[in-house]
């Protein structure tokens, strides 16, 4: 796991041990979500923004397990994706739409062949 239960407990200011198994499950889910989003498997030495994204994910689901709020979820999800986007692997051999637009603009201004 990229983030330990002890790190999550420190982040969330949890003193008791009764939720350790639940926290471990949330960490695994958060890491899987990060790896799915980025289309890559992270090693133990993952960049700090990836680790922070996992902490945000775990914190949200731990604090909001009884009464999830769509606005708070949306905010967390945007932060999660922004932290992970620099590490996202795009499909090989296929450019995404924003990349195509940037290439078109560069050609328009004569910056790229």
Description:
It contains 5 helices and no strands. The chain is mostly helical and 113 residues long. Helix 2 (20-38) crosses helix 3 (48-63). The model has no long low-confidence stretch (mean pLDDT 87).
**Poorly predicted runs:** none
> What characteristic shape results from the CA principal axes?
elongated
Largest sheet: none
Counting DSSP H or I runs of 4 or more residues, the number of helices is 5
Proportion of residues in extended strands: under 5%
Calculate Rg over CA atoms: 18 Å
Gap from first CA to last CA: 44 Å
Query: How much helix is in the residues?
Result: 55-70%
Number of strands: 0
Instruction: Report the structural category.
Output: mainly alpha
Q: What is the arithmetic mean of pLDDT?
A: 87
Give the H and E element order: HHHHH
